[in-house]
Amino acid sequence: MVASATRVDRVGPFAAEGRSRTANGAPFWGQRATPLLLSRAWGYKLPRWIARFYLAYLAIPIVLLVVGSVGELWLNTLLPTGFTLAWYMQVAADPSFRRAFTASLAVAAIACAACVLAGLPLAYAIFRARSKVVRSLARVVYQLPVALPPLVLAFGFILVFSSDTLPWLGSIWLLAAGHVVLGLPYFLQTVVADMQRLGLRTLEDAAESLGSSGIQRFVHVVLPSLRHSILSGLVIVAALSLGEFQFSNLVAGFLNRTYPVVLLQAFYGATGFACAATVVLLLLALAAAIAGGAVSGSASRLRGVAA
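^ that's the sequence the OP posted. Answer follows.
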């Protein structure tokens, strides 16, 4: 009876697993120990493998573009042969790409300015609405451009602004107006969510109790509290505007074509030239991502210090 009895050893490496030992000290594995070990091992390793696979899925096309942009010749081979920087020099010297690069930056700047001028009062009005139904309906309305494809907006612009009454199709201002429609929902969502998270209504009530007017509260309380969320929203709007293709391809005129529209035509020519032009757009996206991360990081640090 004593030899066949088992006891649970709570000391040693078997304690954490809750495994039992026989009376003579030999481990008694049983039927549940091995599946438990396997499940825990896969539980730790599976998220790592998924993360590695996802990072490789993102990195491999970018690496191939960078390698192709400095390759001298790439024809029916896995990797290009030779090394050259002539493709970047050709992109910089091409007048159509320089004009498209300038147009993209101008459209992104106009879209960001319009989002600030129109989005901040609209976000404040949505946040201060007393009725929950009104706030919910407002969110549904301003998020509609996210659900609708940009092609639908482009077709609507073509029908309205290609007439004799409103012959604005192809102008840079109309192109920027479309980018505002596409980017404003992301700006509003960022700002409104930050208003709710910061408890802005309490800060305004405190300022009102001290005798400040509505304009003073907006300038001295609302805007300083939202500076990080405003910058984050503008980074998102700029990134979306610089990479937008579907709407711009149909609405932009010949002189106001954005960089992604001109980039499509590069793939009908030399592969190295197309890769170099694409890398330039990737660098712009990377700069926007770094700026957004820096703004979010500084905002998180300030909130941590305030808390």
